[in-house]
Known about the structure:
By secondary structure, this protein is α/β, with parallel strands linked by helices. The chain has helices at about 15, 60-75, 95-105, 160, 220-230, 245-250, 265-275, 285, 295-300, 340-355, 385-420; strands spanning about 5-10, 25-30, 40-45, 50-55, 80-90, 110-115, 130-140, 150, 165, 175, 190-195, 195-200, 235-240, 255-260, 310, 320-325, 330-335, 360-365, 380-385. Helix content is about 30%, strand content about 25%.
Amino acid sequence: MSEPLEQVIHGDCLLALEHIRHSTVDLAYLDPPFFTNRHHSSISRDRKSKFSFADVWSGLSEYSEFLEARIRKVHKVLKDSGSIYVHCDTSANFLLRTLLDSVFGANQFRSEIIWTYRRWSNSARGLLPAHQTIFFYSKTDGYKFNRIYGAYSETTNIDQILQLRARDEHGVSVYATDRDGCIIYGGEKKGVPLSDVWEIPFLNPKAKERTGYPTQKPVLLLERIIEVSTDEGDLVLDPFCGSGTTLAAANLLGRRSIGIDTSQEAVVLTRSRLVAPTKTDSALLRKGRDSYATADKDALSLLAGLDILPVQRNSGIDAFLKTTFDGLLVPIRVQRRTETIMDAANKLARAAHSKKATKAILVRTHKSDDLFSEVLLPRSIELIDSTALHIKARVAELLAEKVTENAANTAFQWTLCDKAAQRP
Length: 424
Ligand SMILES: C[S@@+](CC[C@H](N)C(=O)[O-])C[C@H]1O[C@@H](n2cnc3c(N)ncnc32)[C@H](O)[C@@H]1O
């Protein structure tokens, strides 16, 4: 009988690992308790199940012994070409590195991967933690490693990258040229090799793949690890599988997998997740961070010099004043070239209302609407003309003054002429 694609085992991985044949696993990913000295608990998305696991220890030595015993077992089941990735945070990363050095050998250290993500919190004093660490070791030097490439950054001079390089007579790297002195192009380039800093968003509360399991990791993170260290059909092991993220990612990528967990709820959840594994699409990874900067640059340039916070992804508000009004935010909108002042005012009023702002500032950039009267504006809106409008209005006044002055001068000259003509 052929082996199942996925196996989910309930129990302590120390014992379960005894039942896995030695040198059969291509990749092991471990996301054990992090030495937080906390009980982690949460509720499932449908609010029907409770999940929990303890991460409470008498001290560092108990934690260290717990992990070392299990990492030694993982070492045995890995193939010679296999790799281990161990996830941790600052609670015990210093310990994990030493443990892995002693089990796998310091020379088998491959990378310290920094998984970084954006978080918004003002709670703690000090720097906001925005990363976790994943140590990557291989069992031998003959480990499997698939190169992954990303896009060149906007600042990269692609033209230079494509040019073939050679060494001159002093051994210095120069651009290769042909007999006529013309640059030689080196052909297709694959992109920038994957670095050890991975920006992958944390699962947001509405993410499709979110199960509600505490400390659940994103499928995208596991997919990347699996892609780097395995090929299709390879065997992936997660001895602390929790909600089964590793198994879901392995399934999506056509790899076999084994998951182990002491929590019965985790095992049930992992099995149910494998019925139809999903992954949350990350627009951030697909489109890049810059695509989120949707604030209208022309509009913001009109607000230059003001102490403001530009607003992205809001069709009614361009910025907030840093100064509050009655303790409330003050939104600002700049009228667009294509919109009437009433359209701009209505968009701003709606957006301001949803932010519970009682005052909002609308910058008028043109006067195309003859029927407009300020009494029509929502009361919360302060209308201010842009500098360009002020200048235009002042120029119009000056021109009008000039016309009046000229007319007066002409009239005066005519009077003088008349008087001259009347003279005997
Ligand atoms: C940090 S969570 C794993 C989360 C998982 N990576 C995910 O994405 O959902 C750690 C898991 O280790 C399990 N665990 C703790 N001690 C264990 C042990 N001795 N053997 C197997 N699993 C264990 C806990 O029940 C918990 O589910």
